[in-house]
Structures are given as structure tokens and as C-alpha cells.
What we know:
two-stranded antiparallel sheet; 40% helix; eight-stranded parallel barrel; TIM Barrel; 290 residues
Amino acid sequence: MTIRTLTSFVLLFAFVSVSPAADGVGTSQSFRGPVGLQTYSLRNQIQADGAKALDYIKEQGFKYVEIGIGNHYGMTREELKETLKKLDLTPIAALTGHGFLLNSTEAAIEEAEFFGVKYVGTAWADHRAPMDEAQMLKIADDFNTIGKRLKEKGIQFFYHNHGFEFYPYKEGETLFDLLMQKTDPDLVKYEMDVTWTIHPGQDPVKLLRKYPDRWIFMHLKDLKKGIVGDLSGGTDPENDVVFGTGQANWIEILKAAQEIGVKYYFIEDESSSVLEQIPQSLRYLESLAF
């Protein structure tokens, strides 16, 4: 082997060794992730099979998870923590109830510290439909209060939108804009759920770019084609479909998310076909080029 050939071989090996797969499951040369899984996706499997159901997460190649606080689908928190450690899965963030965070803040903080998570959020704001200005102002006040309490303990609070926040407000704005305006940017960050942005008729790309400093996480979820959304914050779980087969324009969404610096992306698939759909969605993400 000549020196030139050897040099070429070494360079080729170096290139292969930093291939997209090295960045983790669900990533490509264009989409860098990192991609984790929201354990709610496997709630039924965990309820039926306990810790054994979490083997699936490791088998798919995930390294990161977003968990729940206060509810582990039949497992104790000790069992969950031990299983995550055994499977080398790192809990990055946790979701729990609005009321629990507001009224039992110390208990929420204690459990967050138990799991070692530095981000705690809620995916639902307590309200009576339809959402209105008065309720949204109260929610904003609650979130600032929660955010301040958590920040004092070194934990970042975040809110995961769920669709009902987008009632028209004024001058082309929605009540979600009001929520953004009335929450402290340091105390309250956001996690975009792609389905719960599309379902109420919003454009994820425009929303990401409108508030580039507020979004830290994203729930990757695709909404079945033909589904006409509304402002209810609810749809049949079977409308969660394999990425690339639904309504989301993933290339534009993920380009914008990366540009503004989203930190982690968590797949959440609530359908009964979750075990079959997650591998297909991962392969789709790995195929992306932009």
C-alpha cells in the first residue's frame, strides 16, 4: 500500500467514523437532533409489562427520555429510576400537572431532583373551554409563579402547547401570543408539540421564528392527513401517524428548530400502533436532507 493510498484510507475511515449515525438515532447529516422518546408513548405497554416495556426504548437506539412526575404507569419511581439507569437512558425533562406544580411545588421539585432532571414542565393549562383573556392572564401568572419557585432550585420550567391556546385575541394575535407576552422569558420556556400546533391551524415554522428565544424542546408528532383540527386540544390518538405520512412539513419545521437552537426533540406517539410506527418514524428522520 502506497503512502497516498494509506492516507486516503485513513481519511475515508475518519469520514465514516463521524457519519450521521454517530449523532444518535433519528438523526441525519442535516437533522442533528438529539432525539429522545416521551415515555407516555409506551404508557399502555408499561402498565401491562412494567419495567420490561422500557427495553423497547433501548432497542430502538434512544439515549434520552422525557418522563412524567407523579405518575409512572404502574411503576414506582424507584423502579423507573433503576430501570433507566440499567438501560443507560438519561431523563432530560419531566412533565406533570399544572395544579400539581402550583399547589405541590416542593413535592414536584423533590421528585425532579430524585430523577436528576433540570427541566420540568406541564402539557396542559387548567381552564374551562372556551379559553379567554382572563383565564390566560391567570395561567400566565401561575406559570411565572411556578417558574420562579423552580428556578430557585436550579430547575427550568416550560410549557408544552396543546392547541386550545390559539383562540383569536386582537390585532392578528392569539391568546398564545398573550401567554408569551405575559410570561417571564427567563422563568417560562416552551416545548412545541408539532401536532398541537398544526391541529389548531397554526404554522410551526412561523411560530418558532416569532419566538426564537423561548422554545427549548419539541414533541415530534405527525397528524394524519385529512384531519380538520379545531381549538379543543383533543383528537383521536389514532390520528398520530408515521412521520412523513401526515400533515407536518418536517424539513421546514426541523430547519427552523435547529436555526433557533431547540435543545432536544422527543418523539411522542399516542397511537395503538406505536411499536410499529416509531421505527418507521426514526428511519424517516434519518433520511432527511436539507
